[in-house]
Design goal:
Layout: H1 3-10, H2 12-34, H3 38-46, H4 52-73, H5 83-86, E1 89-90, H6 91-108, H7 112-120, H8 124-141, H9 146-153, E2 157-158, H10 165-169, H11 172-193, H12 198-224, H13 239-249, H14 258-276, H15 288-308, H16 314-321, H17 325-349
Antiparallel strand pairs: 1-2
Length: 355
Amino acid sequence: MNFEALITQFGEEYALLLGGLVIGIIFGAAAQQSRFCLRAATMEVAHGKPADRMAIWLVTFAIALIATQLLIIGGLFDTNGLRQFSNRGSLSGAIIGGLVFGIGMALSRACSGRMLVLTGGGNLRALLTGLVFAVAAQASLEGIFSPLRTEIGSWWTIDGPSRNLIGVTGIGNWGALAFSVAWLLLGVYMVRKHAVSAYTVILGCVVGLMIAAAWWFNFGVSSNAFDIVVPVHSLSFASPTSDTLMYFLSPPGAALSFDLGLIPGVLLGSMGAAIASRTFKIEGFQDPHTMIRYMIGGVFMGFGAILAGGCAIGAGVSGASVFAVTAWLTLWSIWLGAVVTDIVVDRWLFKKQPG
């Protein structure tokens, strides 16, 4: 793609908006059809029965890692200057934030990215939880929860270069690529074992490719922009969801960005896929107790995502694809928080009795 020509025709802000919209639409449609979901994969593991949802998550995760490393090796993307490796990171924030996010994900039965996809399919539970998530994220970023977030994040920090697992371990990008291929082989094994359809696998791969596509697009625009500073990042649904909500609540004239195209794009893509596949269905809460549970989950996810520096996709896939140590810590903490919450809440405290 000729990024210079794109910027000349649309300008930096509209080019970013268009890129976010297109990538969001593709991501939303593919995620809706493949049913890509970290929470579902986590629950399969928690119940000792990893199956098709785990298989799809592994394939998607591996493809994101492989595609991103191939972009770096091919010179189409450079991790120098990424906030993950330029700024100090918080190990305490990654661990505790990941645990808190995992608790919220288990309570609301979807991660923040999956909530957007479900909302596009007509799920009003996901819509309400997503709004609560966005408000909690904004409160954690600049509002009432920000002092607590800052305090926890200061407990255990690490400098930028030390966050780069590829540099710290010395494996290089080729080593990271080999590691990523190992994840893919595990995913392929799971796919074959549980007879996942080729259609679902292909769409799962598309979801993973969108992670790399976002890195590539934002890097390309950033390298050719003249008037504004473009932060290089991939897909995430914590700060972008909050920023999108604030954009529509604030006076007109705020700057456009990739994320402001991404969120509507995911909604449009998932809605289009749901309508085309005749799975679009308006769904609500069955009782007040469930609504309260989901809202509490949204608050936990919003705070946890900002504290950890990313959500299940922003840190767990996008951050992991560039091998940021804080992202990997967040990912494993999310898994642990979700599994423990499922055991304590759904299997001990509120276990459904027969009849």
